[in-house]
Amino acid sequence: AQSVTQLDSQVPVFEEAPVELRCNYSSSVSVYLFWYVQYPNQGLQLLLKYLSGSTLVESINGFEAEFNKSQTSFHLRKPSVHISDTAEYFCAVSDPLSSGSARQLTFGSGTQLTVLP
Amino acid sequence: GAGVSQSPSNKVTEKGKDVELRCDPISGHTALYWYRQRLGQGLEFLIYFQGNSAPDKSGLPSDRFSAERTGESVSTLTIQRTQQEDSAVYLCASSLGRGSSYEQYFGPGTRLTVT
After folding, report:
1. For the segment A102-114, what is each residue's pLDDT rounded down to a tens digit?
2. Measured between CB atoms, which of B103, B107, B109 is closest to A46?
3. CB A74 within 8 A of CB A63
4. Residue B95, Cβ neighbours under 10 Å: how many?
5. Residue A84: how many CB atoms within 10 A of its CB?
6. Which residue of A has its CA nearest to B109?
7. Which of A29, A56, B69, B74 has the most CB atoms within 10 Å of its CB?
8. B101 three-state secondary structure
9. Which residues in A lie closer than 8 A to residue B57 (C-beta atoms)?
């Protein structure tokens, strides 16, 4: 079974500082990787995803994540954060080789990013 | 709205009572998932529906949990004889299913509190 580890449960950072949220997964096969964000009192939203191709993927609001197969990681980064980035971030993985029902997402436990003024 | 909707948004129930949670997926989405999010934890997969195929119930934690879906529309998650450990946010997601980019669109969740 797959598992996802988010090493940091809480990450406080000052506004305009860079941030990295770490994600490692356990899988010996190919994977699809996702970052979801949950703003306060809102549902989960897809932030970015890696399916294939370029290992560096970007979101429209300045976040990026790099798929590193050798380290089984998919860390999320942003060079300069804003107050509005305060949210909980979830890393998730699915197995593209599985048939239908197994394409569930396996989530990490989440990282609360708090941007301080 | 075009998103996934869930009702109720909050539910407080007494231990031992049954509860029913509802999910309305995005129109045209053939796949529907239920997840549970306990406080301070990630999402746990519960059950998956794909079109008219038999659902994948492998994530249901006990036989007190069941879910139904009518065709490719509304789904209900039922928890019988609720226990305090059932307290969590229950999230529903839908996707285009086979051949899609596997993006799942999530509803706002139902916060269940068992007293």
Report:
1. 567 889 999 999 9
2. B103
3. no
4. 22
5. 10
6. A43
7. B69
8. coil
9. none
